[in-house]
Fold:
Amino acid sequence: MFDSADNGRPAANPVIAVQDLSVRFRLPEERVSGLKEFAVRWLQGRIAYRDLWALRGVCFEVRHGEMFGVVGANGSGKSTLLRTLARVLHPTRGRVVVQGAVAPILELGAGFHPELTGRENVFLYGTLLGWTRAEIEAEFDGLVGFAGLEGFVDAPLRTYSAGMTARLAFSVATARPAQVILLDEVLAVGDVEFQARCVQRLQDYRAAGSTIVVVSHDPGVVRSNCSRCLWLDGGSVREIGPAEHVVDRYLQAMVPATAASETNGHGSADGQPVRKQQAGA
Structure:
């Protein structure tokens, strides 16, 4: 685990400051069969909407050089939060301030093409990330070596397994440190050995001063590598504080109530013996 003197208090000069952040999506109430029907209904004012608040009143700060985790169930607003920090989405209400250049790694391999070789995809992806051809050539052997794909780099991407594709994408996407790195469910790529290398790369970046925000469904990743953690529940902040404490609280809340009601394997939730049901009841 990273060393941390964290006490749950906000940083004096935060790299990320989120104040009363709310994000609303407007969803049509009725299903529309096509764009033409939607346009006609919209012009006639016959489209009814319902509001879906993906985030409501979210407030937190992340300090310089911190690795900050975000946990929560599906639909809790984790990815929406990262997309707002990356400026892909705009807040409906509230304010988001991010100091420095941001490297959002939200979907690995989004720029890959299956008919191109691994080599060609490295150049394509690197170009999409703003690299020059000379820069990609200089980094190429290291990128492929980190992914462990030296023997496959000239094969078409469609012949790669999902894990191989993710390894190559992670290698290119994280080849250069940034002031702020946003990761959405990307630390579960490849095998255990490669995952350890991914975490070590991020630790090195953090030690060099990068600020990292990690969304993960793997509580172990957050507990082991983050100093603090935010727990989102239904788009709102349920808890924020030291990662180990918040992850433990999150896991306790995720335990089904039926499991919590078991008492020595033969009692009910209120401690009374369970009665056998009569046949035909």
